[in-house]
Amino acid sequence: MKNILVTNDDGVLAPGLLALAEEMRKFGKVTILAPDRNWSGGGHVKTLDRALRVREFRLEDGTQAFGSDGAPSDCVALATLGYFKEKFDLVVSGINVGANLGHDVTYSGTVTAAMEGVIAGLPSVAVSLEVPEGFVGLVDFGPAASAAGIAVQNVITNGLPAETLLNINVPFLKAEEIQGMRITRQGLRVYHSRLDERVDPRGRPYYWIGGDAPTGVSESGTDVGALAAGFVSVTPLQLDLTAYRAISDLNTWNWHLQPSEVSSLVTNSVVVADK
Ligand code: MN
Q: Ligand 1: distance of its center to the CA of 185 in Å?
């Protein structure tokens, strides 16, 4: 019996979270703490300049859940730092509506919640379903929940290497159309963001980051490629973002810092470092 923390970034009342919680009950006790509103695209957040509040919710099937006004990563921090006065064995985040592929991962609340789990020293899994942007209708989370179950069973059996999380993306297909599961690397997202400048009623400009939904380069071996071929993608991610390939090159550059060439740069504003 494992003690599993379930969270998401679509909000505590999102149907994907309930589907994931139901699947996770097969592995042990499930505790839910997630944002009280949709926090998609919120990135890896640590809220330090305001209080965080937690309220109790009831999900559609009566399941007890907790919602906070913090980010998904704040929810994981709250839970792992002692809100529940108990220890967790695993953090599972999702099921997100929309894929989190390639460069999406640092924008994604779903994935950054799992990153926060890794920071807390817990094996963590993020699960996303490739629902097309603009889709409206009922969604079958069954295939994504089953894929999450297979991943979590593997994590329980085999453990995860330290500093590693699993980023799972499931194609938006019927169960019988899914080709299987593939271990992948991060692929290349292609963003089509466009800045829309508009004017408010007082004549001042304001901005929306708009444009079409991102696409991707369907290269074999990548998360984008796996989904395009009808497979569930399982990408092991690490928080160490060091570009190791650049280190030896950079070591050939000139990094000599000469005290005699340093000029003083003290501005007139007092610096107050946050505690
Ligand atoms: Mn989301």
A: 21
Question: How far apart are the CA of 261 and the centre of ligand 1, in A?
Answer: 49
Average of per-residue pLDDT values in the chain: 96
Instruction: Check residue 84 and give its pLDDT.
Output: 97
CA 110–ligand 1 middle distance (angstroms): 6
Residue in this structure with the two tokens 């599993």, named with its chain if needed: 4
End-to-end CA separation in angstroms for the chain: 40
Q: Which residue has the tokens 């589907």?
A: 19
What is the whole-number distance in angstroms between the Cα of residue 16 and the centre of ligand 1? 10
Cα of 72 vs centre of ligand 1, distance in Å, is 10
Q: Report residue 237's pLDDT band, with 50, 70 and 90 as the boundaries.
A: very high
Distance 249 CA to ligand 1 centre (A): 38
Residues with Cβ within 8 Å of 110's Cβ and at least 6 positions away in sequence, in order, are 8, 9, 10, 40, 72, 93, 94, 96, 100, 126, 127, 128
Domain 2-244 sits in CATH at 3.40.1210.10
Query: By the 8 A CB rule, do 228 and 178 touch?
Result: no
Domain ranges of the chain: 2-244
Centre of ligand 1 from the C-alpha of residue 255, in Å: 42
